[in-house]
Amino acid sequence: MSAHEHDSADAEASAGSTRRGFLGVAAVAMGGTLLAGGVRLIEVQAATPSMPSAGADPQVRWGLLIDTEKCASGCTDCVTACNTENGLAAPQRPTDVQWIRKIEIKEIKTQRAVSLPVMCQHCAEPPCVDVCPTGASFKRADGIVMVDRHTCIGCRYCVMACPYQARSFVHEPLVDQKPEVPRGKGCVESCTLCVHRIDQGQQNTACAEACTQAGHGAIVFGDLNDPASEISRRAKAAATKQLRADLHLDLGVRYQGL
């Protein structure tokens, strides 16, 4: 084969690979049958790089510790703080975006009831990442699970895969967005542990800050890998539980008092 023929063959192979990647993306977007056998899913994931995680330290595992014995029933300060910080409107309908929701749990035998916030649990093995066909759902090196809105095609596979109902789909056009928290209609989103704060050098989330200011101290944010951090010390002092621990997802959010 001549050098010219060799170059032509390489160019044709590259073009073919590009076309296959494009068809894979199109098939996902249209729900086409090209996904049969998972072939196109693999091609799309391979062709789509994840959103860069600038500032993410692989030695760190950011997480939350929530003490349900200090979480006041009826208090929604953490929800309000999250909405304000990230430019979310107060939810009016079940389909509205909500990154934190307060729930009540009652022990059947003792009838003991506790109130607790539930958000993205920032799994070490996130199901949302496993099912995402484009790589839009990804986990940063510091354990924060996020969605790249530029790559998200709104298929909502991750919404169905999340055991914690922690992801929301943006149905309506967005106005008055905050530049540090970009969002987009047609995308899925969830709690980011205030990643914009972390990347700016701050070390507290809006929800934990609001809870402390309210005098409850029920939410602690910090590095789970640092034995000297408050979150690690409090987790060591009293047993913690993970929601749906039977799934073995190694959550970044731990609860006390359940």
Report on the structure:
The chain has 258 residues and is of the alpha+beta class. It has 2 domains: 3-47, no CATH class; 62-256, 2-Layer Sandwich (Alpha-Beta Plaits), CATH 3.30.70. The protein is 30% helix and 14% strand. The protein is built from 8 helices and 9 strands. The chain has helices spanning 3-30, 39-47, 77-86, 127-131, 157-161, 195-199, 206-213, 230-237; strands at residues 62-67, 101-106, 113-118, 137-139, 145-147, 168-169, 188-189, 219-223, 253-256. The chain has a 3-stranded mixed sheet. The termini are far apart. 34% of the residues are buried. Mean pLDDT is 84; it is low at 3-52.
Question: Any descriptors?
Answer:
alpha+beta; Alpha-Beta Plaits; disordered N terminus; 258 residues; 8 helices; two-stranded antiparallel sheet
Class computed from helices, strands and strand pairing: alpha+beta
Strand content: 5-15%
Helix segment tally: 8
- Unreliable stretches (pLDDT < 50, length at least 5) are 3-52
The name CATH uses for the topology of the largest domain is: Alpha-Beta Plaits
| Run of helices and strands | HHEHEEHEEHEEHHEHE
Task: Tell me the name of the CATH class of the largest domain.
Answer: Alpha Beta
Q: Round the mean pLDDT to the nearest integer and report it.
A: 84
Cα-to-Cα separation, first versus last residue: 71 Å
Radius of gyration: 21 Å
Name given to the CATH architecture of the largest domain = 2-Layer Sandwich
State the helical fraction. Answer: 25-40%
**Oligomeric composition of the shown chains:** single chain
**How many independent structural domains?**
2
